[in-house]
Amino acid sequence: MFDFRKLSSSRALYQSNETIVSFWQERTFSYTFTCLIVIGVVPYILACRYAISSDHMQQAVVFTILYAVIILVALLRRIAYRFRFWAGILVFYILGVYSFSYLGASDTSWLYFLCFSILAVVFGKLRAGIISVLINALTVILLGKIQGIQPFDTGINDFNTTQVIFMTTFFFINTMITLSLGVLINVVETSGDEFKLLINSTSDLIWSVGSDLKINYVSPSVHSILGYGQKELIGCYIHDLVDEDQTDIFRAAIEKKEFSYETVLMHRDKTPVDVEISGSRAGRDIRSENFYQGIIKDISSKKSMEREQDRLNQELSHAGRYQAIGDLTGRVVHDLNSILSGIATYPEVLLMDTNLDETTRQGVVMIRNSGQKAADIVSDFLVISSGISADLQLLSMNQIVERFIQSAEFEDTLRSKFPNVVMDMTLDPELLLVNASYMHVEKALTGLLWFAHTQVGESGRITVSTSNVFIHKHNSEDHEIPPGEYTVLSVEDNGDPLDQNVIEHLFEPFFIKKVLGKSGTGLELCVVWNTVQDHQGYIHARSGNRGNRLAMYLPAVRMSLEESCLVVDEIKGDGEHILVVDEDRSQGKIACDILHGLGYKAWSAANGHDAVNLMKLKGADVVVFDLAPAAEDMTDPVAERQDRPGAVAAKRMETFRLIKRMYPGQKIITTVTGELNQK
């Protein structure tokens, strides 16, 4: 039995070269003539039986040919539609001619001719309808003349008059019905073309499903969003495309009059697509069942932007933590460093005394080691807070690595504590240079190596490598790094892999100490992150079954490096006079002792008044000023105590300017630390 529901759920789709009307004309034509095959079989058998019994075999042949034509045009859909269309409707025309010829101008004849015109305009639009009306008119006039009907002469007899009136009325009705249907179909076609243009031009996926969740329609944009073709999805069920949870969510959503929610659908290539599904109940279909329609909007770009925003917010939060540390250290680190300098540095001066007894020497060594540990923490704080205020210079990462590996610091801090760890170096001989601060890069290298050693433990393998990398726009691994040329310093270990959650917090202050339980200051990787940020670089952490890899990307510079090396003998003095101005007397004494060891004659002054007096009494070849602000704002008491002769400026900067005025050619070295450096 023919199922009319196929008219509303056909798997065939509009082609780009056909209108909505032509699409449905062709399909309705096929369904109509398929129905004629079924409905017409009884009249065909009865007509043939009557013709054979009446010895009118030619009528049986005509009926058989016409019935065969109906079968052919209904079933042979590979034949072009225009040939099938004209062949099909000509069946009614031939029946009309045959009926008119044998039965005269009967009601049956007019009915066949009327069906011929109506089917012509319905399945062929207005042009075919007008042609059919003209064919009907010429045929009826010709057949009427053959049978003695004179359409233009109404005075012959009453029969002729009646037939002419009937023919005129038929042509009027035939023309009006055909033209009305033709205009209506043209309006529908125009509206359909506008709808099709809207459907094809929208980037959103328009859908329609039945109450059984069977897909009745999807727009062409389904290919750009999900990778499927329309024919692949129309007729399928929702649960064939998504998992059970997604189906349940959709089923619950359509229970509402209107709904909208965000979810993830799988692309045909198995990649996830972020979408927003919205819709409403549209009404009832021809089966009196609810159906639903709506749109699916691809929000992948929106979600990607949200994820990027979350990432930036997270980085901003991290940067805020680092900035807070910087602000804190900027206020206290100068004074703290002054206190620790005496503890960490002066024991070295005491240990130079060869007459020191062994017990005292051991105590001094313990003080030195404790002070050095505290100084290391302060040093990390200084690196974080100071930034790369020092002059940048062209550096080779290879040289930094080689010098550090051969340094006493590496031996003392890492090699002696992890003697069984194997160190490999893979350095690119054609490595590009970087414009960087040597101290900061070396500090970062120290942090990377320290972390790798703590990961492998007592034994393991660590590989330090350098390379040149050009980041393309769509590099999958380094997607967060802007395109450009970089010099990469990476430290790889074969220790236990890290969880992704750990990697996300790896560079936060004290995370590795408090959460991971690692030794050290807890600021080693924080220093790495801060150094990379200050150099407009990037840090990339990766962990897998083979271990961990931390890579530092710094912008590369295509310039040559002029080799230079510092010889210690070049900085030794020959009795030159140096005046050290530092409010911290212990710091001044340490500086003078070091300068004495290098062959200079040095004096220290704790304020501007003493500095000026020493300049007057002894003079100086070089004056070294520490311009950092003190807690008491480095106020010179001379400005407030009038009992001292020769009052000078109240602050160090004023003392600096005063000495320059008193001794225009005086050489002065200024040092800055702490908050003044930030300002």
Structure overview:
With 679 residues, this protein is an alpha+beta fold. Helices cover 53% and strands 17% of the residues. It has 22 helices and 16 strands. It has helices at residues 20-39, 41-53, 57-75, 81-103, 107-146, 158-201, 222-226, 230-233, 238-241, 244-253, 300-351, 358-386, 397-405, 408-415, 438-456, 500-505, 511-514, 524-534, 585-597, 608-617, 652-662, 675-678; strands spanning 205-210, 215-218, 258-266, 272-284, 290-298, 393-395, 420-426, 433-436, 459-471, 484-493, 538-544, 547-557, 577-581, 601-605, 622-626, 667-671. The strands form three sheets. Strands 6, 7, 8, 9, 10, 11 and 12 form a seven-stranded mixed sheet that branches. It has a five-stranded antiparallel sheet with strand order 2-1-5-4-3. Strand 3 and strand 4 (272-284) form a beta hairpin. Helix 2 packs antiparallel against helix 3, helix 3 runs antiparallel to helix 4 (81-103) and helix 20 packs parallel to helix 21 (652-662). It is rod-shaped and about 150 Å long.
Name some characteristics of this structure.
single chain; 679 residues; alpha+beta; seven-stranded mixed β-sheet; five-stranded antiparallel β-sheet; disordered N terminus; disordered C terminus
Helix content: 40-55%
Summed over residues and divided by their number, the pLDDT gives a mean of 77
pLDDT < 50 runs, ≥5 residues: 1-12, 630-650, 673-679
Give the count of helical stretches. Answer: 22
Share of β-strand residues: 15-25%
* Class of secondary structure makeup: alpha+beta
Radius of gyration (Å): 48 Å
